[in-house]
Amino acid sequence: MRVYLDHNASTRPHPSVVRAMARFLDEDFGNPSSIHAAGRAARDAIERARDQVARLVGVGRDELVFTSGGTEGNNLAIRGGAEAARAADPRRTRVLTTSIEHPSVLAAALALELRGFAVTRLPVDASGRLDEDALERALGSDVALLTVQAANHELGNLLPIARLVERAHAAGVWVHTDAVQAAGKLPLELRALGVDLATLSAHKLYGPKGAGAVYLRAGCDVSPHTVGGHQERERRPGTENVAALVGFGVAAERAVEEGGAWAAHVEALRDRLEAGALALGARVNGDPGARVGNTTNLSWDGADGELVVESLDLEGIAASTGAACTSGSLEPSPVLLALGQSPAQARTAVRFSLGRENSAQEIDHVLARLPEILRRVRSAMA
Ligand SMILES: Cc1ncc(COP(=O)(O)O)c(C=O)c1O
Is this prediction's pTM over 0.90? Predict the structure, then answer.
């Protein structure tokens, strides 16, 4: 039996997504900037996708800039947003973020340091909850942007975005949220949350890889970091990946139509897995009181996470130790280190992220295999 429990790394595009995309790789292959019928068909498809994604996250269609995914989106929103805020007010030269962000956010913050910004990485407690007093102290008239994720990729922790927006706006500071791990998993109304900028990625919500979007609140802007054509109102020039954006749109529409229905099913399976793991001596990393419903991050003392993941893989079970872009490296997860764990502790973490196609039978299969896997890993380490 093959069991896929790595949906925070990527999800299987729904068959209706694949079908919709195929047409735009084949018969309707025109360039959406062309004025003939083939071009118009591609343009209409992109604009339909924009409506579908806008509906998923409760924003206006004109507030979305399509990108190649979450990494590019975070670069555009964070680097472009901070630069635009500094251009509007040259005193705003500081960027605030948290110490548990995705590597693409950490890298964008580093790039801003090279451009003369100071970056403050706000601490979290042992469960990954943000230190809001530290945020309050850091907010001021020198801050250009606060970037804080909506849901953590490794722990599933949910951050209190609406409250953070209120605090930041009181200091005149724009807020960006990396909503890649939240969109499609829970109701997400970006306009109601009050954020100025947000990042989305299609392949975390049963769409294709290589498609995403940045929400740009009306009245808020980003300095583009790619120049070229006039696409996406010049915020992201380049011929659009029509098929992928069409797939993104269909995935968003499906999430609107049926997301709530399967979210409860996924959460029940996650709880079943977690209860079984706790009975096998696991510790839960993160904040069980405020998490997305599909994720559990578990540690077993004395069992190296990388070895557990490799042993699970030998049994046909896909899980991971952390962000896909850092797993495979020998470094312990920066997220778990930020929680105050020692490198040795952090190396024991295993992330299970469930999805709509998982079943109770699969979870029971994993739980049945785990005791032997843990025994083997521990004896290999002894
Ligand atoms: C929180 C978060 N932000 C950004 C990204 C990057 O998205 P993409 O893979 O579309 O570049 C990921 C992907 O793992 C993520 O989990």
Answer: yes
